[in-house]
Each structure stands twice: as C-alpha cells, then as structure tokens.
Specification:
Elements lengths: L23 H14 L1 H18 L4 H28 L8 H12 L2 H7 L1 H11 L2 H8 L3 H14 L1 H28 L5 H12 L1 H17 L4 H15 L1
Helix pairs in contact: 1-9, 1-11, 2-3, 2-10, 2-11, 3-4, 3-7, 3-11, 4-7, 4-8, 5-6, 6-9, 7-8, 8-11, 9-10, 9-11
C-alpha cells in the first residue's frame, strides 16, 4: 500500500498578526515562543506558584480556603510581576515593581471568593482589572493609576481579554493535571513533589500569557471592533 503524500512547505510561515488584531490562538503561540526564549526566567516565574501548589496538595477544602486568599495572593502576584518584567524587558530592581506588587495583591483579593463559586467569575474579574500589574511595570504607574489603567485595558477588548485568560488557564490546568499524574506514577514521586514540578514548569505559561495580553489590549485601547476587523482584513485585500 502506497504511503500518502503531503504537500511540502514552499516557504517560511506567514508573520504573526500585530497585537491589535492578534487572536487568542496566536496569543497562546506567542506565549509558548516567549517562554522558550526565556525558559530560565520562566522557572523563576513558576517557583512561587509551584511552592503554593505543593503546599496546598492534600489539604482539605477548608484549609485551602484559609491559605489561598493570603499565600495565594503573594505567590500569584510575585509570579505575575516577574513575568511582566521579563516580557517588558524591565529590571526587577526597578522602582516600578513595588506599585505593581501592591496592585497585584489588591486585584487578587476578591479572586478566591469569586473562584469558590466557579472559576469563570474569578477569570472575568482578572480580565477586567488584572492587567494593572503589567501596566504598572511597563508604564511606571502608581497603584491607583495602575488600577485605573487596568480597567481601561480590560475594557478595550474585553472578549479577547476574557477568552485569552480562559484559554491560557485551560491549557495550563489540563496539562498540569496530566503532568502531575504522569510524574506521580514515574519513579514513585509523591503527590506533593509531582504538583511542585508540574507547577514549576507549566504555570509560567499563564503568567507570561497574561503579560503578553497587556500588549494586545494596549494596542486596542481607543479602537472599535469594526476598526480592528478592518485592520485584520486589510492585508488580505492588499494581497489580492
């Protein structure tokens, strides 16, 4: 029986769309690419989340709810600030880090209570105000200005922001579960050690993706959906 033949590539892949028209799929692809380019920094980004994930493994629901609002805010904010600095090319010694960290903790405070009902309300909250953290890092803003800017960025294209975060969360969550189960069954790793390793390697995808989402939303501030669609269609029309 003859083997099927597949068409060969005749040239390089087309360039990615600019941030103003970038799709959720391309956001994920750019996230993976950025992670690969900064994998050492990526492990530092994943460390706080990995420690929290390992510590919470095996806890009851009541214990988790008691720990996550406090330790989770610190760990999540630390990872997010580091990711925002790495993506933005900003030194962690910069004065911008402190307002970004304060804004991150404030943004995180309602999340555990919203996520306790269902994860989606928590992500909806992050999509609306969560970009305050990279805004503080990239634009050198104070806490109040960063929170206002976060809302402005979230509203610029809220659907893109929400679906971007939902997609990144699903990718990380499902992959992390599969990796944790695989690691737990390999070489007799404990459940806690497996959770730590999976969080260390995979959680940076979420934080780097959120930092890149800032770039998308910043490019879309002041534009309408029709204008963004026109920008997306224009290259195809000119090619014809």
């Amino acid at each position: 029986m003859a083997r099927p033949r597949y068409p060969k590539s005749t040239g390089p892949l087309p360039p990615p769309l600019p941030p103003i028209t970038r799709t959720v799929g391309q956001l994920v692809a750019e996230t993976v690419k950025t992670y690969g380019e900064h994998w050492q920094a990526g492990l530092v980004i994943g460390l706080p989340a990995a420690v929290l994930s390992a510590a919470a493994t095996g806890f009851s629901r009541a214990q988790t709810l008691a720990i996550v609002p406090f330790a989770g805010g610190v760990a999540t904010t630390a990872s997010y600030v580091i990711a925002s600095a790495v993506v933005g090319g900003v030194s962690l010694r910069s004065r911008r880090v402190v307002p970004a960290a304060v804004a991150g903790v404030l943004v995180y405070l309602p999340f555990p209570f919203l996520a306790a009902l269902f994860v989606l309300p928590g992500l909806a909250w992050f999509a609306l105000v969560g970009l305050a953290v990279p805004a503080a890092v990239r634009e050198d803003l104070g806490v109040r200005a960063a929170l206002r800017r976060g809302v402005e960025l979230g509203r610029a294209d809220y659907v893109h922001a929400l679906f971007g975060l939902v997609t990144l969360t699903l990718v990380v969550f499902l992959t992390q579960i599969a990796a944790a189960l695989l690691l737990q069954g390999f070489a007799d790793n404990s459940e806690r050690a497996a959770a730590f390793l999976a969080g260390l390697v995979l959680s940076p995808v979420l934080f780097i993706g959120a930092a890149l989402l800032y770039v998308d939303q910043a490019a879309r501030v002041g534009t309408t959906r029709a204008e963004r669609l026109a920008v997306r269609v224009a290259p195809h029309d000119s090619a014809q």
